[in-house]
Amino acid sequence: MEPTEANRALLAVMDQASRDMGAGSVTAHDPSQRGAGDVSFVSPPLAALDGLGALGRNEHAPGSR
């Protein structure tokens, strides 16, 4: 899913909500450094965010990569 102005605008809303809750900033990662999410198959034309979970090892379950 390539970055678009609509996706950046949606990210700005998510970032502000996270900051308002005291959870810190939400930033985009380099598209070449992330996997493909299901939303990639419907965006565009829909603005979408994906990959809002944890980064690193054991993010899905103990022992996962």
The count of β-strands is: 0
Distance separating the two termini: 22 Å
pLDDT < 50 stretches: none
How much helicity do the residues have? 10-25%
The biggest sheet amounts to: none
Q: Overall mean pLDDT score?
A: 80
> Any idea what the shape is?
flat
User: How many DSSP H or I helices?
Assistant: 1
Radius of gyration over C-alpha positions, nearest whole angstrom: 13 Å
How would you describe what is shown here?
There is one protein chain. This protein has one helix and no strands. The chain is mostly helical and 65 residues long. The longest helix is centred in the first third of the chain and has 16 residues, at 5-20. 2% of the residues are buried.
Notable traits:
65 residues, mainly alpha, 1 helix, 0% strand, flat
Task: Annotate the secondary structure layout.
Blueprint: H1 5-20
At a glance:
The protein has 65 residues and is an all-alpha fold.
